[in-house]
Design brief:
Length: about 375
């Protein structure tokens, strides 16, 4: 990361292709490592030493939202499946909360199967929080009962279940100032915002940053993190969210519904962060709002890097990767009260298919948390 990294990056699940490793190379290695436990419904596996050591029998069951092929929301079913068993370097987590994200719908529909193929049956939701329930061999950092959170890879079966497997090295302690379940809705969007701003955008104190889509879940954290970095923050939002974005610390908020909002943006900017599902032609037009040598980073649409070079600026599409150091720093800022979190809706496992349908129809707003134990 740039000036705000606070530590080294976890390289084991890097998705960003700027390192010269194609996603297919990374995924082939990951799938080979995980093939012994990906098929969580295989109850024919012999009893493992891990199960005997931790008191988790192989025939234990759990409830999970599952789909067995790519397709629409109707593919998702709530089933009783075999509880997974942690392998070497892994932990079993009793899931308290798991964030729902648009990427979950893209994965389910098969739109990302070329770069991030899934092994079926598959459990959605790649971010989660919970309690360490069992330890695989070689795990020394965590103890049973530890409260942790993480964001997993796009090929991992995830958190829409009562239990989930994660690598011990990819976990961080949850912020102690918020509800354990709510912490499950933090990692993906907070990490994405951090990496857009600092790791790829190299944001520094006093620079001017434009955040497009500030009222969304990634933009919500991007505005706050920019203020923590003492940048001058210009953000865009729809009219109903302008005041809320000011409340996050933005210096200026532009009405995104106005066709000429870019003319009011007081360019140029050192950094532009696209946290909106804007079309590529829109995103590429914003390259002209950058100062020479400035950077546009996008969490959604690709950027025309050839056009960026012609304009003597930088542009890139960024995939989030996990970083325990960044999650630890995020937790500390939440505990200190300088970084706010937000959960707009809670749902049980039985509502996962409905959430996918609402998202596909463009009728889902805000951050939704899945609570596997059910709602009170």
């Amino acid at each position: 990361m740039a000036s705000c990294a606070g530590g080294s990056l976890n390289k084991s699940i890097r998705f960003v292709d700027c390192m010269g490793l194609g996603p297919d190379v990374i995924l082939n290695r990951q799938q080979a490592e995980r093939s012994s436990r990906t098929d969580f419904t295989d109850e024919s596996r012999p009893n493992s030493m891990v199960a005997r050591q931790t008191g988790v029998p192989n025939d234990s069951q759990m409830k999970a939202a599952v789909y067995r092929q790519y397709g629409g929301p109707e593919q998702i079913r709530v089933e009783r499946v075999a509880r997974p068993i942690p392998g070497e370097g892994e932990v079993l987590i009793r899931v308290a909360g798991s964030g729902f994200n648009v990427v979950d719908t893209l994965l389910r529909a098969g739109h990302m199967s070329g770069s991030f193929p899934q092994t079926f049956p598959f459990i959605p939701n790649i971010e989660l929080s919970g309690t360490v329930e069992a330890l695989g061999t070689g795990v020394t950092k965590w103890q049973l009962g530890a409260q942790v959170y993480t964001s997993m890879t796009l090929t991992d079966s995830g958190g829409a279940a009562e239990f989930a497997i994660a690598r011990a090295e990819e976990l961080a302690a949850v912020p102690r100032s918020i509800d354990l379940a709510d912490a499950g809705g933090v990692p993906l969007c907070a990490l994405t915002a951090w990496q857009l701003l600092f790791e790829h955008g190299s944001l520094e104190r006093g620079q001017r940053v434009l955040i497009v889509g500030a009222s969304g879940s990634v933009g919500y954290y991007a505005v706050q993190l920019s203020r923590i970095a003492d940048a001058y923050v210009v953000a865009t939002a729809s009219p109903s969210f302008v005041e809320a974005v000011y409340g996050l610390g933005a210096d200026e908020v532009l009405d995104y519904s106005k066709p000429n909002w870019t003319a009011e943006s007081k360019a140029p900017f050192d950094l532009i962060v696209n946290a909106s599902p804007a079309q590529p032609e829109q995103v590429n037009s914003w390259l002209r709002l950058l100062r020479q040598g400035g950077t546009l980073v996008s969490a959604w649409s690709p950027v025309d890097e050839a056009e960026a070079r012609r304009l003597h600026v930088n542009g890139k599409l960024v995939y989030m990767h996990n970083s325990t150091q960044q999650l630890t720093d995020i937790a500390r800022w939440i505990e200190d009260g300088v970084l706010r979190t937000k959960i707009d809706e809670r749902a049980g496992l039985e509502q996962v298919a409905e959430l996918h349908a609402r998202s596909d129809a463009g009728k889902l707003r805000g951050k939704v948390l899945i609570v596997p134990a059910g709602l009170d």
